[in-house]
Amino acid sequence: DIQLTQSPSFLSASVGDRVTITCRASQGIASYLAWYQQKPGKAPKLLIYAASTLESGVPSRFSGSGSGTEFSLAISSLQPEDFATYYCQHLSSDPYIYIFGQGTKLEIK
Amino acid sequence: QITLEESGPTLVKPTQTLTLTCTFSGFSIDTNGVGVGWIRQPPGKPLEWLALIYWDDDKRYRPSLKSRLTITKDTSKNQVVLTMTNMNPVDTGTYYCAHRRGSTWFFDSWGQGTLVTVSS
Q1: A48 vs chain B: nearest CA distance in angstroms?
Q2: A103: contact with B, CB 8 A cutoff
Q3: Which of B35, B41, B43, B59 is most open to solvent, judged by the fewest CB atoms within 10 Å of its CB?
Q4: CA A85 to centroid of chain Cα atoms
Q5: Mean pLDDT, all residues of chain B
Q6: How far is CA A72 from CA A65, A85, A88, B45, in A?
Q7: How far apart are CA A43 and CA A9, in angstroms?
Q8: CB contact B96 to A (< 8 Å)
Q9: B65-109 pLDDT, tens per residue?
């Protein structure tokens, strides 16, 4: 079964910093990867799909890249509202299962 | 604008059956490619997908929970219902329903979630 491993699990940064979160798949998944942002007590919000396509309404400081087994989510200049937990996600066809990474919590330094 | 809202009990006893309803607007579940899924999140833990129903009534379940889950849809009411049998304290968490964009593999709109606690 495919697994998604995010790194780091915790990240401490300051407003204005550029940060990168990595998601590694245990097998090649082409560009079938999405990224979500979740704030405490709130539902996840779709940020990026197809590894690098920005969802409508998402600020351009967010960007995604990668294909195959290695993916990354970058935030170019952290804003106070960006401190949250981020998840990557893939749909495996065999077995059919939506897989989420374990999450990366981005905290204010 | 797509909206989804989960409803159901906040507290269930061990061994009981949980029934959750997702009421949605802004889309038709009859639209080709559309799906509605259920995802849960134990306190402090990652997201875990449970089930999904497609526009054509195809149903998919998390393999490890398949024997306990049933997902159905009521097109006339714009609702999707998830039942989970034999609830256990480890099933405690926030349960979300979410819209799967047509012919894609991700969830673009989510309900606010409902917290379910399993305790005697």
Answers
A1: 10
A2: yes
A3: B43
A4: 9
A5: 97
A6: 5, 14, 9, 21
A7: 19
A8: yes
A9: 999 999 999 999 999 999 999 999 999 999 999 999 988 899 999
